[in-house]
Amino acid sequence: MNYRSRLFVVLSLVFASLVIGTPKVSATTQIFYESFTNGWTPGTQWTFASPTTYQPRIFDEPTQTPRYALRLTSTATKVSGGLIFNRPIPISAGLDVSFTFSQWGGTGADGLSFFLQKGTETSSALPAGGTLGYSADRNQTPNLNGLRNGLIGIGLDMFGNYSSPNFDGTGCPSIANRPTTNPNALVIRGPGHLMAGYCIIGSLKNTTTNWASGTSSRSGRAKAIRIVVDPNTASTPKINVWICAANTTCSIAGTPNLSVNAPAALLNEPTVRFGFAAATGGVTNRHEVWDLTVRSQNVFPPVVITTQTLPNGGIGTAYSASVAANGIAPYTFAVASGTLPPGLSLNALTGEITGTPTTAGTYNFTIETTDSRVVGETGRTATQPYTVTIGGALCTVTYDEAGGSAVANTDFLQPGTVTLPAAPTRAGYSFLGWFTAATGGSPLTSPHTPSGCNVELIARWALLYNVTYEERGGTAVADATFISGGTVTLPPAPTRAGFTFTGWFTAPDGGTQYGSTATPPNGDVTIYAQWLPYTVTYEERGGTSVSDTTFNCPTTCDTITLPPAPTRAGYVFEGWYTEPTGGTRYGATYVPTAKDQVIYAQWTPYEVSFNTQGGTSVAGYIIGSNATITLPPAPTRAGFTFNGWYTTPTGGSPVGSTYGPHTGDLEFYAQWSPVLHNVTYQEYGGTAVPDATFVSGGTVTLPADPTRAGYTFDGWFTAQTGGTMYNTTFSPPDGNLVVHAQWTQNPFTVTYEEHGGTTVSDSEFVSGGTITLPSRPTRAGYTFDGWFTAQTGGTKYGSTSSPPDGNLVVHAQWTQVSANTVFTVTYEEHGGTTVSNATFVSGGTVTLPAAPTRAGYTFDGWFTEQTDGTRFNSTFSPADENVVVHAQWTQIPFTVSFEEHGGTAVPDSTFVSGGTLALPAEPTRAGYTFNGWFTAQTGGTKYGSIASPPDGNLVVHAQWTAVAVVSGPSSAPTTTVPLPPATVSAAEIVAPTKVVTPRKSLPQTGTNMETFVSAALLLLLLGVITMNSGRLRTRKIR
């Protein structure tokens, strides 16, 4: 059994142990349950053990709990009994037994045991006395015999005999912690047969085994026992025993009270029988059992009747047949339905059907077999239907062999069929079949149904003639025979080294060739093979004729010498080949294979080709022998001059306009001289660079860099300025080339000497360039006079100057001021309200005035410049000089509100003073055509797509024209009648005199009269629209 099967069994047992409150049968486990209650009898399942000093029975104790139990001993001394369940139970997949027992009402005599023996055992003999049905009691002769074919015994020992070492079997190992003669022990013995090997293999004595009798109560010392034979334990198969409270099923979830290795003898048995035995010895006691449950995994397939059919019979003829089955032996057989043929009977134990039929007919009946598995177990019975025909009188078929070998007569029942015998033999003849008459008719087929009771069948024969094959040197062909008037099928062609088989003929040479079959005249016949040598056929393919040849292959084939080359005008002979094109070329000689050969000439026409060596292509052509070749016009090649056609790629002499006469392939070569192109270098003030040349398709390597005072060389370019820089080596296009030098002027340094003023960064300029002087530095107590050519005196520079080439030093000059010198602060408002100028003294501070205002603008602050510059702090310390402070402004945008008047929403917009307004995309309104954006809701002036409105917030109105709807059956189209739009110029736009309140906010809580007026106007507008819609629907457009 594999791992999965074992796991399945264990899980089934565990599940059964958890749910066994009431006995039940699962789909995977067969369960036998016996309560041993009132009305129990042994029936056919139980057998009383022998000798029968006492037969176990149900005892009714009305004052005890439970009231009924199976008692194994009486109240007399030395009286005991046993009980065996006589049906085999599967064990190989495990066994699980539970019961409750009690030993009470006496003086503690001996005890009781549960035992297992081989399932094939049929004896009911148990040892008597204090052996508890299993151990061989050496000390109490003549009670030396134990249980026959016993496998295991589990003793619930009260007195100590069962657990005593003196009662051990032969050849037993020593067991640690074995109870001696003390009472109240759980002991496992086994295995063995009779006395030998009846060994104690495990024992237990503790408070759980305190079942000594000393009580007058059935339930006082009662215990529940659960015994599990588990072959699926991970390491070694086990026998586990649990002890628990009476009238319960012990849980197997915990550790067993006693566990031993299961003996191999137990695990090797497919089935077991089980039973109980008890002993009283010289004292009295009651040993009782109730609530027995046996669980066994079903490891056997259902019983199957293997005999599928039964033979037929005849009246008055002895009949014998057997019905066989596969299952758990022994079996019983019975007729489940229908009837056997009269005169036949079924043996219920062997399944044999015997007797002598008395009545003809066809009989249908069903046989049922029952095997020896547990009563109620699935698969215990099987049935098989049969049909048996009983025939009439016994008849005989005799055979007339007509000169052939003897054939035994055949008996059959009338009516019935006969299987025809194997064909007899007769020298010189062929058997044609069995017939009902000597002439005429057709051969009979098997099985044959005779027309009468005793009949004769006659053999017919035909004369045989011999066919002899003359291979005449070929491989052997077996001779044959044919019957008079019959046909001969000729054999496959023989083979003969060096020859080709041409067929089977009536004569060695000449004669008539046979087909694949022949009908020779009656009499022996000889058939001849005819042969031809192998042929070599030459396919000249347009060449001069070549004669074919033959060859033989007696052991190896003859060597063939190929003929001289044929000729063909305008072609070159390439050789003899295995194929017309391609294939393999033959040498001067070759050894063929043993079959006809075809050899092919291959040809190549003379070809004139032209190799232009880089020039334009010139096509070749085919010529014949002794041809004069006219040379084609000169090809061309960019950058080269054509020198002529030559017969060699280089050197040699040019060919004239014609060449020849010539026979054979020929190739002409174009030869060329390269064209030179000039490279001119433009140095632009740099040192001179010699010009160069390059050939067409060639490369140019640039010269060493030139030099130029005051400049850095940037490289050679395709143009004087810009262009693309050349690599050191490049491939120019054909034609003369000009290469330009490009330079970068070296800059001059401008150094600023501040002479005590704040630091000014130095700068650079290039030859011919200008310099822009930096912002003025500052110096405490001094006024900056300007930038000069010298520290004192010199010439003052303007804000920009064009100095001569060379590095330059520019000097700051200063005028010292007294502490009380006053300087002016001039405010440039740039359109804002006027701000008074101010003054400050040398080293003093300036506090800026309040911000000016400017309509339409936001004041950004006071700055050093009108735009950009640096913003002044509210108080700052200027340099000792006059200061100009500039106001800077940001224009405030105006709001443009779009009134859609029922159209789709248009987002509002803004514009700045003097700016333009781009009108949005047209809104839409169901049932209306958009007329444009206007200065008023009605009338007013229409805006163009871009407008330049005056300063101020602006409201722009959408105007609409309702679409007229035509009613009635007319299919005239819908007509819109727009108002003529007006166009307004920017000059005509007048800003509204009323500040527009945003109209897109929801009404606010507390809105008074304006809300009601607005609501009234809205209702009035809806009424007008409704009236107009009604008019439009009834208006007829003409």
Automatic annotation (TrEMBL):
Membrane-spanning residues: 1012-1030
Molecular-function GO terms, alphabetical: calcium ion binding
Recorded coiled-coil stretches: none
Location of this chain's protein in the cell: Cell envelope
GO CC entries: cell envelope; membrane
Annotated protein name in UniProt: Unannotated protein
Cross-referenced NCBIfam families: List_Bact_rpt (TIGR02543)
Primary location: other
Lineage, highest ranks first: unclassified sequences, metagenomes, ecological metagenomes
A Pfam family recorded for this sequence: He_PIG
Keyword terms of this UniProt record: Membrane, Transmembrane, Transmembrane helix
